[in-house]
User: Fold these one by one.
Assistant:
Number 1:
Amino acid sequence: MSISIPQLPKGTRDFYPEAQRIQNYIFDTWRKTAESFAYEEYEGPMFEHLELYTGKSGEEIVSQLYNFKDKGDREIALRPEMTPTLARLVIQKARELKKPFKWFSMPRLFRYEKAQKGRLREFFQLNMDIIGTESIYAEADLMAAIATMLRKFGLKDGEFAIGVSSRKLLATYLEEIGAPNPALVYPVLDRRLKIGPEAFAKALADAGLTEEQVKKLDDFMSCKSIEEVRNAVKSENAAAALKEIEDLFETLAAAGYGDCVNLDLSIVRGLAYYTGIVFEVFDKGKSMRAIAGGGRYDSLTEKLGGERIPGVGFGMGDVVLADLLAEHNLLPNPKQSVDFYIASFTNDMKKVFETAQVFRANGNAVSHPLAAMKMGKQLDQANYQGAKIVVYVDGSKAGEGEFEYKDMRTGEMFVGNVSAIVERL
Ligand code: HAM
């Protein structure tokens, strides 16, 4: 009988150390940028009660849930996104949390997606959110952070774009043309460019729109400038929504990010909870799936049973980002690196372990052989582990507290005590 070897589940990844080092580079850049914008890190559980998602996040994401009944007969779902968890955290401490506040997280998420480029069933997603303010400068802060981060990864302005739209604006336009319930229309609008004009018109007709309304909506969503939109909409609400976008763009331009953002009314977003500005980040030419997406959700806490606390934020996945960086040759290839390798000519393992501890107590990363082996083998190991200095525990001066050591970067040999060796790093 043949036994088949275990297989990797579809849509998941293994991270061998080589891949994990690249992943850590992405995580480090995410974390450093978020911290440089004064966001604080938080976490939550990887699974939640199913009802946190049903009815609030939108049909698509709910259809992709990994859910099950636990042994206590509770309906549980692996988290497909972080925003509902964040909202739950906010509601639980609504009084204590000093608002506004800026938080970030880098959760592992699960969605039962059709396997395709840029979309997996398990992935990581940087989330940055600002809670407790309705000010458009919160959006400006988030978008400045996105642009800063993508530049830090090595992308140039023009190689990515943050497309900005507004559900408030769309809602007022839908009202102006007398279209029915926006909640039914948004999911169709979100698919507009994916499904093509005919299917789009049919889906809107099914949602109750007339041919003329569909035509108007299609024209509206093709507007490329604030001027064009201003000519198309008349209501005061629309003017206010437009003014907000103008303010946002001018602020970002003042901070040096003017070339990173543009008006893109074709962006609607699939999630149900957005109420204001919505945005998506794409590579130039939109040849890949979205790198990031987000928006304002001023009534999510209320929908979940808490008081109304406004919020805005985005999620940036690791998958499309890594694909894009790879395409631009921007992914580093970091090697393993340790500070010291403790070697012994006589395979005196007790002395090796003892000396390794001295350097570790000093805060250094230390490796050494795990079995008796010739010096040539030990040096090979030191080499491929990226040791900067090899310390020989049984050199002629070992009794006097001094060691012979070799700087692997220059090949030079020295003799000295622990502090001299550490100094050499
Ligand atoms: P989302 O548009 O569903 O938004 O996801 C945001 C980003 O996560 C996408 O642009 C993509 O980079 C990545 N992503 C989504 N699904 C997958 C997948 N199956 N495989 C790989 N990457 C994926 C949200 O999740 C919102 N909760 C974001 C947010 C935060 N809104 C406000 N705050």
Number 2:
Amino acid sequence: MSFYVTTPIYYVNAAPHLGHAYTTIAADVMARHHRQRGEAVFFLTGTDEHGEPVADAAHALGVTPQELADKNAERFKALAPQLGASNDFFIRTTDPQHMAKVQEILARVRDNGFVYEGTYEGWYCPRCADFKAENEIDEGRRCPIHHIELTREQEDSYFFRLSAFQERLEALYAEREDFVAPGTRYNEALSFIRSGLRDVPLTRHKLTWGVPVPWDTEHVFYVWFDALLNYYSALSYAPAPAGLEAEGAQLDLTQTFWPATYHLIGKDILRFHTVYWPALLMAAELELPEHVFVHGFLLMDGEKMSKSLGNVLDPFAVIERFGADALRFYLMRDVPLGQDGSVSTAAFEQRYESELANELGNLASRSIAMIERYRDGAVPSGDVDPALREDFDGLPERVSARLDGAELTAALDEIWQRVRRLNRYVEEQAPWQLAKDDARAEDLDRVLRTLAEGLRSLTVLLWPYLPASAERLLAALGAPDVSLGGAAFGAGTIERVSAIEALFPKDRSAA
Ligand code: MSP
């Protein structure tokens, strides 16, 4: 089994913000989960560096596009590890290998008869790097996303014959209802296709910041075609992920990982990924991805969070104060993947305090402290309490099933309900009472090992969401293995626990 997940590649016209962190974190949760299942995983993220948004931003700053791209690509590259993201590669569309691949594939698309010369005229948003259809234009000829005035553009272009794929795309959607998720996004893409596909510009003449068109060097490729191809090109030159490289000297990652299992994207770039992208792959005779999952927007004050609107929450600042795990948890728990959701510092602090610090952090420190106090740190051997079986049985399978459908929030909720169940178990059993009565020593033994094993099992499942904290906790439980095969409640054997400092210290939230 192999699993290949991608994030969109981020524009380098501005610094990273929480909206970008959101997709990267979601992809990371999926990548880690599939690694836990023992699958070969490739997780790709990177930066989109060509095109007008970058050229314009560089011009405004008085630097070259390459200088701006170099500077901001570094910031995106640095963000990934700070988020705890375990991406296997970071692609930049200015990588020469990527550019060569774009030229190769798009020349093939032309050889296959899907490119012709023409003139394009339309309303254009330089921020989206996108021509808008009449029904996508806000009042005052403004971009509905960026609220800036659209420009009337007319230019000689080579066109991609998107219209030739009308029937094949309709057939694709009829055959594969899970090609696009959630269902509302599937419907949105399908109705766009059904409304009638028109050919789209493949190249730009007025712009020089892009991948040169090999058959006409007066043109560069329209940035979206260059960008979409990153998902394919990366596999042709990225180094093999750890663990895979040992098998063969020169592993062909394209063969192992193409087609992609999941493209995670935001809803603003739906049309490119659910219409243009499959059509382009068909034109190039390449296999189509299995799923495109479309998430919503993080909103602040009801508006999409975006650098150009100036309403951003700085992920670097949040991480510095609370740690990456807290940010990952908050975003995955509070904004169901697939829907829009408001984010705020108050909601973040509330989740941190009540769920991470109280429900999980306290459960862990209290359970470990009781095993140390009552049993000198040795976990009594024997079976776990059958009273919890009903709540815990089948949990890893349920979590996997949710994650297979990219239901990251629902999967986390399955786990969290059991965190709460264990907390109730502590209250019900009151081990501090049992400890007072020698006749109840066996009961206390059972409660303590049930707590240790319950924590272990849940922590393995939480690892994709809270990797650093989960590893600390599993180390304290003397059970570092995070493989899913051993996640079932009752499957582990914990011998000793060791003291652990607060996983989510409360004073941080007051800092
Ligand atoms: N460069 C293109 C993508 C090319 S993929 C072949 C692009 N870049 S972007 O930096 O503008 O946006 C990248 C992703 O971040 C998009 O999926 C977008 O939806 C997401 N987000 C940007 N702001 C967001 C929020 N406020 N909330 C959630 N995600 C949003 O588009």
Number 3:
Amino acid sequence: MLSDLFDHNARWAAAMRSSDPDFFERLATLQRPEYLWIGCSDSRVPANVITGLQPGEVFVHRNIANLVHRSDLNLLSVLEFAVETLGVRHIIVCGHYGCGGVRAAMEEQRHGVVDHWLQPIRDLAETSLGTAGRRDDPDMLDRLCELSVRAQVDNLCRTPILRAAWARGHDVAVHGWIYGLADGLLRDLHCDRRQASDSEGHPAAGPGHG
Ligand code: CO
């Protein structure tokens, strides 16, 4: 029921006000998030909920399979605003195991426009994994979820927005994480970048999938 959402909202706002009377007043005048989250649209991976961050603490961009297309005006606008105006200190690209977008990219059948969106994942699978006969292997799909996060971190670091930010000494780091739907846990893929010259595409050092 949609009315349940309004009821829940009213109770939530009242609870927030009772624990912190100035909470909304403060947020209404200013947001100063330290984090930009680039994640999958999947309803099971809500940035604020799984990280325990409150309203005002994380700027969020989500799309199918958490991709960084270099001509995506939506993502680039979010990135520019987050880095240049909000001054975020950490950018987190977060993928998740069992991503339907990654799986769809590996399927033979046509899905529609989303096939164009997912093309970079197909390209990545062909160049990095070799995919013949392994399209329905869950371990291969999870590995591809991890590889894709690393590739998106690379893409992000190559944007003129981040290169310019680092060139002027802006302290902003990019991180690659992955979330397990089956256990609710985040894993660090250990592919952090803090400047343009940080190594790109170095081998996986993170834990296996869950
Ligand atoms: Co997904």
